[in-house]
Write a sequence for this structure.
């Protein structure tokens, strides 16, 4: 059976975008008139065969009935306003772990953790993602009690200190999720997409929190052992679609979903590049997109001899590239530098 996918492409920005929308030459992306598109890429998947073509939006009506129906349905979701922040935002990473791949042990003590939070908020982060268990490639699972012991003081006092900042909790365990929601967590960020703990989604599905649907092939311990896909872009799209249809829609707050394709989580360099270059395909699912490229291995694989410890240059490049495709949330370590880069890049686009 054939399946069709729609990806918005050929983007315009700022005043040019607004003008083209008024003239009905382009369509707003995610309800934002400052970024629009006038072409779409149509993927056709027929068993093992995959093909694609790019057409102007004014030629949609000329497509065959079945394809046209699918495209028009997708366009409605692509252009719909997202019920999140009106502008793209930075999610600052706070790993309260001894073994995270780039900053393990740095913010293990509570005073150091809050010092780091203050700096990230001052630098422009509107979301802070707190994690007590490393999910780096090859990492092992820790007991929920140990994980909670690491993060409880930060979680307990976070909203009292920063009521206007969103608190995201990076965990795979239902026990941690429930406790975090009790202390007014805004986002549950589970890299296993609620598969690690069979009770996790059931326990929080009706909670008024944003839930990150994150793609990972395998587990942190096994995910980088020769990951394989039929087509990484369309396979992950199908994964998201299945999650939304069969799991997410069963909860009361089914609209509060964020999609994260999981860069580096069970993907090789080729997979990561495909996802980043065509990430706008996920807009046709109708939810905000989160991307986490900060300090990831793919940056060193590309830069080779020019790799650096914090990989700020590679992180910023990937953020700006996906920002230009309408991604709404960027999970980063170096908030100050990325914020500066986004402000300058946005100003240039708006001219």
């Amino acid at each position: 059976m054939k399946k069709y996918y729609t990806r918005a492409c050929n983007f315009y920005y700022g005043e040019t975008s607004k003008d083209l929308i008024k003239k009905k030459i382009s369509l707003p992306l995610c309800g934002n008139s400052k970024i629009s598109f006038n072409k779409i890429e149509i993927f056709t998947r027929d068993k093992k065969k995959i093909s694609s073509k790019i057409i102007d939006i004014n030629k949609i009506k000329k497509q065959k009935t079945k394809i046209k129906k699918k495209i028009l349905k997708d366009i409605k979701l692509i252009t719909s306003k997202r019920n999140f922040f009106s502008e793209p935002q930075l999610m600052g990473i706070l790993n309260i772990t001894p073994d995270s791949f780039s900053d393990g042990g740095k913010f293990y003590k509570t005073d150091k953790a809050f010092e780091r939070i203050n700096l990230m908020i001052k630098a422009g982060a509107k979301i802070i993602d707190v994690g007590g268990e490393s999910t780096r490639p090859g990492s092992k699972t820790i007991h929920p009690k140990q994980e909670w012991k690491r993060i409880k003081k930060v979680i307990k006092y976070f909203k009292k200190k920063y009521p206007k900042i969103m608190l995201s909790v990076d965990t795979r365990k239902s026990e941690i999720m429930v406790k975090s929601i009790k202390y007014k967590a805004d986002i549950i960020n589970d890299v296993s997409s609620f598969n690690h703990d069979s009770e996790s989604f059931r326990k929080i599905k009706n909670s008024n929190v944003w839930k990150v649907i994150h793609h990972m092939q395998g587990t942190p311990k096994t995910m980088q052992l020769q990951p394989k896909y039929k087509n990484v872009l369309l396979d992950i799209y199908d994964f998201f679609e299945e999650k939304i249809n069969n799991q997410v829609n069963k909860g009361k707050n089914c609209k509060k979903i964020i999609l994260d394709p999981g860069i580096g989580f069970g993907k090789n360099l080729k997979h990561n590049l495909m996802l980043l270059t065509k990430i706008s395909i996920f807009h046709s699912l109708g939810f905000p997109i989160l991307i986490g490229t900060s300090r990831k291995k793919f940056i060193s694989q590309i830069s080779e001899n020019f790799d650096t410890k914090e990989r700020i240059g590679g992180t910023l490049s990937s953020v700006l590239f996906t920002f230009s495709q309408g991604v709404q949330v960027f999970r980063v370590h170096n908030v100050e530098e990325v914020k500066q880069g986004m402000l300058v890049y946005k100003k240039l686009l708006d001219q």
